[in-house]
Write a structure and sequence with these properties.
globular, single chain, C8orf32 fold, eight-stranded antiparallel β-sheet, alpha+beta, two-stranded parallel sheet
Length: 232
Amino acid sequence: MVVKIAYKVSFFICSNVILLTLTGLLYADSPPQLNQKKIISALTNNYGERAAKRGNAWFNALDRSYDLPEKEKLKSINDFFNLLHFVDDIRLWGVKNYWSTPVEFIGANGGDCEDFAIAKYFSLLEIGVPDEKMRITMVKALRLNQYHMVVAYYETPSSEPLILDNLDGRIKPGSQRTDLLPIYSFNGKQLWLNKEKGRGTLAGESQRIKRWSNLNQRMGLSKMRQPKLRME
């Protein structure tokens, strides 16, 4: 049965969520200035020349986006990463639910929905979109009957979110994404759990959040994973 969603009620508007502050666990400061030379060198050494070209294209997209109005920044970054290939973790990395860093995602030339969302989130942070306006959001894609991840952007705390997605490349208000059922969301400092029938309900295992903590610990260039599948 398809569940229709009124996003103004259920898509993580502050009055309808439980807000948990997790000191240290979900902490991500605005990223430091990226070192293009080191990142391109790491892409070349770990993934090859084509990966380095994708890396340079990423930096070009960042450079073009710095001075854009905020909503145009969303479109620029969403469009760039949606050019990469979707492939599930088992095929690409040989493990389930591997959350790749943005550099690994670019290097591999593909990833699953978490990788798209994570790369968009960190890129938007890099070009000045405030962390408090964004949430990486776990949803259920009703038409596919599977879990999925997107980025939700809130212009103000009470605004209806805009959804950045790799399934539907057009950025739309949450009320137009009736194909998505929200479960939980988080950003650099906080976690929100969806509230159903007046009760807070945990969705999934706690190790999903551990993956976020683990991802932040792997954001350097020294421990980049090698894909099992070549996407060139």
